[in-house]
Design goal:
Layout (H helix, E strand, L loop, with lengths): L2 H22 L2 H15 L4 H13 L7 H13 L3 H8 L1 H85 L6 H8 L10 H14 L15
Helix pairs in contact: 2-3, 3-4, 4-5
Length: 228
């Protein structure tokens, strides 16, 4: 079998066997397989170097590492292993495509993160504005109630003062004496006239007239038998 035939057969076997093995390999098995491939690759076995490069490229049993993948592809290709040579022929274009896809993925994730953050901030801002509006409305209502209460209290105090003043005026009006005219005031200020003493003659005439009308009221009534 020629070298080219062997390379083609190896490529065919790799294409058929490796995907199935990767699909059915558990994490522990992948780790063990990586160790086994590494041991064979270090013996300068070209197919093992190619397989190890594929494991680094795909991230099987190890974190993805394109630098190490390219290194082992190169080692395998230097030995003329056809799958490694073909892989390196398209490596730059494929890596560029992968990097472009990775960049797009990162950018999409960043845009999605920024959009989610903006939406969250907008929601928080709307909630804060709504809360501030409710608080302002509550404060305005409280201020209006306080103002109404103050106005009502001032009105009640004013009405109470007016009633008290009216009651005082009414009480003062009842307590004051009636107003007098200047003539009456002058007459009240002048002393009352003293009656003049009666003349003796007039007094005697009056007593006589009274005795004639009623003999028992006179001074001599005690000597009269009819008045006893």
């Amino acid at each position: 079998m020629t070298r080219i035939h062997r390379a083609g057969l190896a490529l065919l076997l790799t294409a058929l066997v490796v995907p199935a093995a990767h699909a059915q390999t558990s994490p522990d098995e992948a780790d063990q397989r990586l160790v086994a491939q590494m041991a064979k690759a270090l013996t300068n076995d070209a197919p093992s170097q190619y397989e190890l490069a594929r494991m680094y490229e795909k991230g099987v049993g190890t974190p993805r590492d394109l630098r190490l993948a390219h290194l082992w592809y190169t080692k395998s290709a230097k030995q003329g292993y056809a799958p490694a040579v073909e892989r390196l022929a398209t490596w730059d274009a494929d890596i560029e495509k992968v990097e472009r896809a990775e960049k797009q993925r990162v950018e999409q994730e960043e845009r999605a993160r920024q959009q989610a953050q903006a939406a969250r901030q907008a929601k928080e801002r709307a909630a804060q504005e709504a809360k501030a509006k409710q608080q302002a409305e509550a404060e305005a209502r409280a201020a209006a109630r306080t103002r109404q209460q103050s106005e009502a209290a001032a009105k009640a105090a004013s009405e109470r003062a007016m009633r008290q003043e009216a009651a005082k005026r009414k009480q003062a009006a009842h307590a004051e004496p009636p107003a007098t005219t200047p003539v009456a005031a002058k007459a009240a200020a002048e002393p009352a006239p003293v009656p003049a003493a009666e003349k003796p003659e007039a007094k005697a005439d009056a007593e006589k007239a009274e005795f004639s009308a009623n003999p028992c009221k006179g001074p001599s009534a005690k000597f009269m038998s009819t008045c006893r």
